[in-house]
Design goal:
By secondary structure, the chain is α+β, with helices and mostly antiparallel strands. Helix content is about 60%, strand content about 20%.
Length: about 190
């Protein structure tokens, strides 16, 4: 910038001495070119700054949209996990009923009612309770209970009661491992 000021001063001095219109026109032209160059540089820098601001704003908007999407996905994941747990619990209840029904039929017992008792969550497993009313002979009930103890996955007999010579109330609880999230296989 210092060199340009020197050139302009030399031209001004020359113009004063010779009073030449051509020199004055050249001075004006050089001055206009210098002013235009300064203006263009500032304008170009302003455009670059605006682009950077726009890029940063767009990037922030994209990051915010991604963050909101992540939160939404996390909420959906929690909902899906909840639904998955409910389905697992419902499937385990149905499987437990199937196991009991099969064992009862194999031992000539009649199932008069099932009453699901709900699911309890433990550290490493869930338990599914089921109250079952059976009708049959004592020997058949004894065989049923013996076979029930051999079922895999584990089924625990919580209680049973005799309500007459042929009617028995049995409360059982099946266990489901949490980490595998698999339903009962019902194999013996």
């Amino acid at each position: 910038m210092e060199t340009k000021n020197l050139d302009v001063k030399i031209l001004i001095d020359l113009a004063k001495k010779k009073k030449n219109t051509l020199v004055i026109a050249a001075i004006i032209l050089v001055s206009l070119l210098v002013a235009w160059k300064v203006y263009s540089g500032r304008k170009l820098e302003a455009v670059r700054l605006n682009r950077k601001i726009t890029d940063i704003t767009s990037e922030k908007k994209e990051k915010l949209a991604l963050l909101n999407l992540c939160k939404e996905v996390q909420g959906e994941e929690e909902s899906l996990n909840s639904i998955n747990q409910k389905l697992l619990q419902e499937a385990s209840r149905e499987t437990l009923i199937q196991i009991v029904s099969k064992l009862a039929a194999e031992n000539n017992l009649t199932v008069s009612s099932y009453n699901p008792l709900g699911v309890e969550e433990k550290d490493y497993f869930y338990t599914q309770g089921l109250s079952v009313s059976l009708t049959g002979q004592y020997e058949e009930l004894k065989n049923f209970l013996q076979e029930l103890s051999d079922v895999d996955p584990a089924i625990k007999l919580d209680s049973f009661s005799f309500n007459g010579p042929n009617a028995q109330e049995v409360t059982i609880r099946g266990y489901i491992k949490k980490e595998q999230d698999e339903e009962f296989s019902g194999s013996r």
